[in-house]
Amino acid sequence: MVEATGELETRSRAARWFGRRASDAHPSRRGTGEAHLWDHHHRNVQGGGARAAVFGVADGLVTNVSLILGFAGANAGPSVVRLAGISLMIAGAFSMASGEWTSMSAQRELLERELAMEKHEISHRPEGERRELVGIYEKRGVDPTVARTLADEMMRTPELALETHAREELGINPAALGRPLQAAVSSFVTFAVGALIPLIPWFITQGTAAVVASVVLSVLAALGVGAALAVFTRRSWWRSSTRQLLMTALPAAVTFGVGALVGVSTAH
């Protein structure tokens, strides 16, 4: 009876430890007497699509406005600017998509290999893996008895054991290893959109009017990208927008100056 009571107490302490961790991570699960209850929701950002989209539109905007203003600074004809802008938009979109596909595929394959090794260890030396888990919990300040109970619970089924070791040892979520196709498509589309923005005026007008319109559209787009990123990351919108504007304006100004110094002999 005493032994059973001790086991129940240990399990109760383990449950309280889990509850405390969950409460810390999810404020909305705290008691109703607290002053603030948050609607806590995590976005799924591990698939790669969101990251690729942000980098794609920003990269497309910065790259093409810089190229366009470089040609404009060299006093190139509008047909030359259009050709250069369209070529970069297409080539850059394919390049970004290819790069995302390759990097995400390699990352996923590496993580799958690590998970396969971990699964093999859990299957062939479960006691050693249990001790590793106990050590991880103890290093985090969990009482040794509770740590052993937690490890026993996690090791009861192979699926739960693999998920726990993947999270605790490798720092990954087995269900979210990244989606190469999603990242590639997202990067392709958003790069093309970002690259198209400063190019639009050159289909309508030319000369100074086109340059000014490209600059205005690019400024607005940079501010928009920064603000959208701030909403996604919950950071200060004005800092994010200002940073994105500077990252867009600086290379554009440099290439415009280089174009003006070098010049071209191509006729309008």
Question: How many DSSP-defined strands?
Answer: 0
Number of helices: 9
Radius of gyration of CA atoms, rounded to a whole number: 27 Å
The multimeric state of the shown protein is single chain
Strand content: under 5%
Shape: elongated
The residue fraction in helices comes out at over 70%
Structural class: mainly alpha
Mean pLDDT: 80
Q: In whole angstroms, how far apart are the ends?
A: 96 Å
Largest sheet entry: none
Uncertain spans, ≥5 residues at pLDDT below 50?
A: 21-47
Order of helices and strands: HHHHHHHHH
Question: Care to give the gist of this entry?
Answer:
The protein has helices at residues 2-25, 49-73, 78-124, 126-139, 144-154, 158-170, 180-196, 207-233, 237-262. It has 268 residues and is mainly alpha-helical.
Structure in words:
With 268 residues, this protein is mostly helical. It has a domain of 139 residues. The protein has nine helices and no strands. α2 packs antiparallel against α3, α3 crosses α6 and α3 runs antiparallel to α7. The longest helix is centred in the middle third of the chain and has 47 residues. About 10% of the residues have low confidence.
Task: State the main characteristics.
268 residues; mainly alpha; 9 helices; elongated
